[in-house]
């Protein structure tokens, strides 16, 4: 099998002028051989760095996603009045700005819009704070859960989390290679497009560089994914910035114009300002708890800006202003925190 992989490596690793792109089938085969470690460690490392230098194509990303679909987990569909929102963020976490996605997810779930997240532990190359650590700090432990249990929580309370080491050990096995390579491989872009869910869904994926967005759009089109949103978010996440304009791409099959560009400014809604820095997980968790208790703190504007936007974006609120007000109400009246308490109790019983 390593001899077959050698041919893939020769194509992507022949240099800037002579390297060739993989076909979709070849990309799927290459990633499956790496995930199952049928390729040798030397080949895997060489491929990851060579593919980064070459730069992936949308076709190759589609093949990588085919491999994730073939070998990875997927939750069955749940009964819901709206598509499940799948938030995809960089697995190597955040190291400069404070993430607010857990509270955004709780507000959406409390409003009847189910949310599915996925990720692992601290990961190269950034080794930033991962979402699973924040959930644990909020009293929700997504580790050591079966897919059936995650499906139960998603069905009952509209919240779920696919924990990579537990649910997709083959992908977790690539972490050591990523650490030794020392650079974020194109595999990280695949994770931004992965949606481990079998029902109707709305994928929301963050990105940093415009060429990445173009590759993402091509890959999703090839895969038949027609309901997605791209966010030029903080550190490539789905969190909207407040100190600059938020740039979004909207792809919805039911709209007259399938692809639309949306640009928003938090300053237009009196929520602009400098981004809240991430200093430590302890400090961040104190801020998240304060927000969930409805207390005024420096993180509150970022939470309202994000949660309010998403309430409007997914159709729960009729306008962005209504979404901002609804987000504030769900925090001050304790509804979002109640959802957190219910999920805590349910997982504890399991």
Short description:
The protein has 350 residues and is an alpha/beta fold. It has 16 helices and seven strands. The protein folds into two domains: 54 residues, no CATH class; 258 residues, Nucleoside phosphorylase/phosphoribosyltransferase catalytic domain (Pyrimidine Nucleoside Phosphorylase, Chain A, domain 2, 3-Layer(aba) Sandwich), CATH 3.40.1030.10.
Strand order across the biggest sheet? 3-2-1-4-5-6-7
The count of domains is: 2
Q: Span between N and C termini?
A: 42 Å
- From the 3D coordinates, which CATH architecture of the largest domain would you assign? 3-Layer(aba) Sandwich
Which secondary structure elements does this structure contain, and how are they paired or packed?
Elements: H1 2-12, H2 24-35, H3 41-54, H4 58-71, E1 84-88, H5 101-110, E2 115-119, H6 131-137, H7 147-157, E3 159-163, H8 164-167, H9 169-172, H10 175-181, H11 187-193, E4 201-206, H12 210-223, E5 228-231, E6 246-251, E7 259-264, H13 281-292, H14 300-313, H15 320-332, H16 335-349
Parallel strand pairs: 1-2, 1-4, 2-3, 4-5
Antiparallel strand pairs: 5-6, 6-7
Helix pairs in contact: 1-3, 2-4, 3-10, 4-11, 4-12, 5-14, 5-16, 14-15
Question: Any overview of this molecule?
Answer:
This protein folds into 2 domains: 2-55, no CATH class; 84-341, Nucleoside phosphorylase/phosphoribosyltransferase catalytic domain (Pyrimidine Nucleoside Phosphorylase, Chain A, domain 2, 3-Layer(aba) Sandwich). By secondary structure, the protein is α/β, with parallel strands linked by helices. The protein is globular, with a radius of gyration of 20 Å. Helix content is 48%, strand content 11%. Helix 5 links the parallel strand 1 (84-88) and strand 2 (115-119). Strands 3-2-1-4-5-6-7 form a 7-stranded mixed β-sheet. Residues 103-336 form the Glycosyl transferase family domain. Pfam families: Glycos_trans_3N, Glycos_transf_3. It comes from Acaryochloris marina (strain MBIC 11017).
């Amino acid at each position: 099998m390593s001899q077959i992989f050698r041919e893939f490596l020769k194509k992507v690793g022949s240099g800037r002028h002579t390297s060739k792109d993989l076909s979709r089938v070849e990309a799927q085969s290459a990633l499956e051989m790496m995930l199952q470690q049928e390729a040798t460690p030397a080949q895997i490392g060489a491929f990851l760095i060579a593919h980064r230098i070459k730069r992936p194509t949308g076709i190759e990303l589609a093949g990588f996603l085919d491999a994730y679909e073939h070998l990875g987990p997927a939750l069955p569909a749940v009964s819901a009045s709206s598509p499940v929102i799948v938030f995809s963020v960089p697995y190597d976490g955040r190291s400069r700005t404070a993430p607010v996605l857990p509270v955004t997810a709780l507000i959406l779930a409390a409003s009847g819009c189910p949310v599915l997240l996925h990720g692992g532990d601290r990961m190269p190359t950034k080794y930033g704070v991962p979402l699973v650590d924040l959930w644990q700090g909020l009293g929700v432990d997504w580790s050591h859960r079966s897919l059936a249990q995650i499906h139960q929580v998603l069905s009952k309370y509209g919240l779920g989390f696919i924990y990579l080491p537990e649910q997709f050990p083959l992908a977790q096995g690539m972490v050591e290679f990523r650490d030794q390579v020392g650079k974020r491989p194109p595999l990280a872009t695949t994770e931004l497009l992965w949606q481990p869910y079998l029902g109707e869904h709305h994928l929301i994926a963050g990105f940093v560089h415009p060429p990445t967005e173009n590759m993402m759009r091509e890959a999703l089109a090839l895969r038949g994914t027609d309901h997605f949103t791209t966010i030029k978010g903080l550190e490539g996440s789905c969190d909207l910035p407040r100190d600059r304009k938020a740039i979004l791409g909207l792809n919805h099959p039911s709209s007259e114009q399938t692809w639309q560009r949306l640009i928003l400014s938090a300053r237009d809604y009196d929520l602009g300002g400098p981004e809240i820095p991430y200093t430590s997980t302890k400090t961040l968790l104190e801020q998240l708890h304060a927000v969930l208790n409805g207390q005024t703190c420096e993180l509150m504007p970022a939470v309202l800006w994000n949660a309010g936007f998403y309430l409007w974006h997914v159709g729960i609120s009729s306008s962005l202003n209504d979404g901002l007000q609804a987000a504030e109400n769900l925090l001050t009246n304790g509804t979002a925190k109640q959802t957190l308490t219910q999920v805590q109790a349910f997982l504890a019983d399991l």
